[in-house]
């Protein structure tokens, strides 16, 4: 068991027999009394978000996590089959651990996946940016800064007026926002 002072963003805890990932972490010090640790967490199994509070010095069950780089091979039902880059083992990983970012997934992409002591996948991250080709673009309206465009995978993105069909765009996988147009070489 650890204490609340050892908590941090992206750590995993077991609370009320549920495995939670800490999304946001806030240390609140009121004028009187002990400090409070307020955590915004996501349940690893269900994806449901909740808020948990601990008093300063309280015992917390922090879960040890191992992280591996794995290559996405193909999709199979509700799982993604990924290959460990070191052992070449192919492991099915639930799509839900990637959240909304799963829509940006492309075959061959290198992912970072975290596992608990029992080799159960807990969380996954795509690269921060992905390059996708524009397949549709609305006509720009004078006076507006952005227009709607669609990139590979039928993903809608707000883009500047100069973006045209065929342009490669860099998209942030965490927010789903346009970053920049990738110049052709």
Rounded mean pLDDT is 89
Quaternary state of this entry equals: single chain
Determine the N-to-C terminus distance.
Answer: 54 Å
CA-atom Rg in angstroms: 20 Å
**What is the CATH T-level topology of the largest domain?**
SH3 type barrels
Q: How many separate domains?
A: 3
Overall helicity: under 10%
Taken from the alpha-carbon principal axes, the silhouette is flat
Which H/E pattern describes the elements? EEEEEEEEEEEEEEEE
Low-confidence stretches: none
Main beta sheet: 6 strands, antiparallel
List keywords for this structure.
185 residues; mainly beta; SH3 type barrels; OB fold (Dihydrolipoamide Acetyltransferase, E2P); six-stranded antiparallel β-sheet; 16 strands
List the helices and strands and how they pair.
Elements lengths: L1 E2 L8 E4 L2 E11 L7 E8 L5 E7 L3 E5 L2 E11 L2 E6 L5 E5 L15 E6 L5 E5 L3 E9 L8 E6 L3 E6 L7 E5 L5 E5 L3
Antiparallel strand pairs: 1-6, 2-3, 2-6, 3-4, 4-5, 7-8, 7-10, 8-9, 10-11, 12-13, 12-15, 13-14, 15-16
Summarize the structure.
This protein is mainly beta and 185 residues long.
């Amino acid at each position: 068991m650890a204490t609340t002072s050892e908590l941090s963003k992206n750590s995993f805890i077991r609370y009320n027999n549920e495995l939670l990932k800490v999304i946001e972490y806030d240390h609140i010090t009121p004028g009187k009394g002990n400090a409070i640790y307020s955590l915004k967490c996501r349940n690893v199994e269900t994806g449901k978000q909740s808020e948990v509070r601990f008093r300063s010095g309280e015992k917390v069950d922090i879960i040890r996590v191992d992280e591996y780089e794995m290559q996405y091979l193909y999709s199979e039902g509700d799982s993604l089959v990924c290959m460990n880059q070191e052992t070449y083992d192919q492991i099915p990983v639930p799509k839900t651990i990637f959240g909304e970012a799963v829509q940006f997934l492309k075959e061959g992409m290198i992912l970072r996946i975290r596992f608990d002591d029992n080799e159960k996948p807990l969380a996954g991250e795509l690269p921060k940016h992905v390059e996708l080709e524009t397949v549709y673009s609305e006509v720009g309206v004078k006076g507006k800064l952005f227009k709607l465009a669609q990139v590979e995978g039928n993903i809608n993105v707000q883009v500047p007026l100069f973006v045209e069909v065929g342009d490669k765009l860099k998209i942030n996988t965490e927010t789903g926002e346009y970053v920049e147009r990738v110049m052709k070489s």
